[in-house]
Amino acid sequence: MKSDILTKDVKDLQDEYRKDGVVLIRNALTPYWLTALREAIELQVAKKKRYFDNRNMRMESGIFQEFCLNSGVGRMVADLNKSNCAMLVFDQMFVKEAGTKTRTGWHTDQPYWPIVGPIMTTWIALDHVDDDNGALEFIPGSHTWGKKYHPFITDQLGSFVKYMKPDDPQYDDMPDFEADRDKYDIKSWAMEPGDLLAFDGFIVHSAKGNRTSTRRRRGYAVRFATQGATYDPSQGVAEWLEDSSLRPGDPFASQKFPVIFQSG
């Protein structure tokens, strides 16, 4: 299979990423991967899974696995986070069909996962993305607040249903960011197919609904742990990410979570 390695230089974005917790990388994908991922997502859509259950496709052989392991995206992640390594956590796709008006609630990702330390998500646009069809929104710098907001269960469209572990003292109450939008410097970008957002596991973010009647919004996300990340199942609620080969405090790397980039 053709590998078509991603070669985008992201070193000039390191300071912005550290400060804001999110950066946009234009034209990150090559035409080969853009076409291949679009085709793979259509095959996955045909399985008619629940919106948030289209995840961990990389566990089966095919384009998703090939991209995660062999595209060079791990090198990009490590460079951006000034890390000497990148470990694959899982992949996920988010397809907002035309007319899906529900906003994905404001949240942070890392409280869902059994990981302590630096985590980065790469979110790839496979269609044109703008305010009308589901652009992502971020609160820059919120990854430095030291807050671990409650993970929550959503309905089929991504709307809030209830908190998970509501009485667990390690989690902070989630402010109503949407009601207080004017208090925050909310950042968003229009994206072209092949653009990539990279963001920290603790940054507060959301996604608008798709108000269009004709335009889909296909996004493909891959999550990575980087240097200093450790395993701790007490920190998450995603039991499907637990790994019996790891003990609390172990470096976050195993057969289930392979090192896909290592410098030196």
Notable traits:
globular, 6-stranded antiparallel β-sheet, 4 helices, alpha+beta, 264 residues, 4-stranded antiparallel β-sheet
Give your account of this protein's structure.
It is built from four helices and 14 strands. The protein has 264 residues and is an alpha+beta fold. 40% of the residues are buried. The chain has a six-stranded antiparallel beta sheet with strand order 1-10-5-12-2-14.
SSE series: HEHHHEEEEEEEEEEEEE
| Distance from first to last alpha carbon | 26 Å
Counting DSSP H or I runs of 4 or more residues, the number of helices is 4
Overall form:
globular
Q: Assembly type of the shown chains?
A: single chain
Low-confidence stretches: none
Quickly give the structural class.
alpha+beta
Strand order of the largest sheet: 1-10-5-12-2-14
Portion of residues in beta strands equals 15-25%
DSSP strand count = 14
Rounded to an integer in angstroms, the radius of gyration calculated over CA atoms is: 17 Å
What is the mean predicted local confidence, pLDDT?
94
- What share of the residues lie within helices? 10-25%
Question: Major β-sheet, in short?
Answer: 6 strands, antiparallel
